[in-house]
Structure formats: C-alpha cells, structure tokens
Design brief:
The chain has 199 residues and is mostly helical. It contains seven helices and three strands, in the order βββααααααα. The protein folds into three domains: 66 residues, no CATH class; 48 residues, no CATH class; 61 residues, no CATH class. The chain is 48% helix and 8% strand.
C-alpha cells in the first residue's frame, strides 16, 4: 500500500507493499489502496541501543575528506587478521585484470568482506532470498578443514598433530572473517569432529 505520513510539517512516503493497521475505530486497509495518515510516527527500532550492543557509542561526522588526516605516529603495524584479509584479497585477485564488482562479491562470499554489500548490490539477493550465501557458514569451514587435513595427510603428518594444526587455523579464519555467529557455530562443531577423529 502506498501511504504518506505528515510529521512536523514534513511528509514521508512509505514504499509500496506496506500494510497499515488502524485502531479500534476501523479495520485494516486493503492492499493496493492509497491513504493519508495523520498522527505520531513511532520508531520501533532503537538504532542507538543496537549500536551500543555492538560496542559503538559515538558517531563523528566529518564535513570534508581533508578533515581526516593520519598522523605519523599513528602508523602502526596492522593486526594479523587484517594482514591476512589483505593477503587473501590479493591472492584472489591474482590473474585478474582489475578490481570489479564480481571480484568484490567473491571477497564477500569467501572472506565476509562487507563493504562489497552495498544497498544496490544486496537488494537483488534479498529479494531472491539468497543473501545467506554471503555469510561465512559450515560450507566454508568444512571446505577449509577438508583442504587442510588432506594437505597435511599427504605430507604424512600424524593424525594427532594434524588435528592440533587445523583447529587453530579454523578459529583464526573465523576471527579474521568477522566472528560471524554461523561461522562460530560451524567451527565449534568442526572442532568437536576433528577432536573425535584425530585424537
């Protein structure tokens, strides 16, 4: 339903498909009809509380790009996880002519690189219900563990040592790709499986 709302002399247009429920005096407006609603807009999502749960408490707005300068003493060695992601991106880009949208999507699917998922890129996947392919999940963890175990066994590494080497590498990958809940669950399960098979 296309609908408009006026608050503080400002008019807001809601997207098509929104259904508005009225109070006891009326029922629900049918889909496809247009209506004008006068009242108070209630914000159901507390964005400030959401950010606080992520450890974000302040927002700084810089008007110009020149307002941001990196001080000489602030140039430190990046964390190991950040260096791993940079190396992985360069490795996946090797042999390709330039960085394009398809390469950035590859980074998002394999490394959990979120800057590639802009609103324009994400919308088709959200509409088709395939947004989950960008989440680091059991498929990624299983493939990586299988490749590592096969490689180490080919090199005749003992089973116990093989498990001790693979498990920390899996957890490092999970941390480097953003500590996503699906990846954490998969890594826990894979740790249990490897511990049972290689100990």
């Amino acid at each position: 339903m296309a609908s408009s709302h006026r608050t503080h002399s400002r008019q807001h247009q809601f997207r098509a498909g929104l259904e508005i429920l009225f109070g006891p005096a009326g029922g629900s407006a049918g889909r496809g009809s247009s209506s004008a609603v006068a009242g108070s807009l209630i914000v159901l999502f507390d964005y400030k509380k959401f950010l606080s749960r992520q450890g974000i408490f302040f927002q700084l707005d810089a008007k110009y790009a020149d307002d941001w300068q990196l001080l000489p003493e602030a140039r430190t060695v990046p964390p190991l996880t950040q260096r791993f992601l940079a190396w992985s991106q360069k490795s996946l880009q090797r042999g390709l002519p330039e960085e394009d949208k398809s390469l950035r999507l590859l980074w998002a699917m394999t490394l959990g690189w979120r800057p590639a998922l802009t609103d324009e890129v994400s919308e088709p996947f959200m509409r088709s219900g395939t947004m989950h392919i960008f989440a680091i999940s059991g498929l990624h963890v299983a493939l990586i563990s299988g490749i590592l175990i096969a490689l180490l066994r080919t090199l005749q590494v003992p089973r116990g040592v093989c498990g001790l080497m693979v498990v920390p590498l899996l957890w490092f990958y999970t941390i480097a790709t953003g500590w996503q809940p699906s990846a954490v669950r998969s890594t826990i399960m894979m740790t249990i499986i490897i511990a049972g098979c290689h100990c």
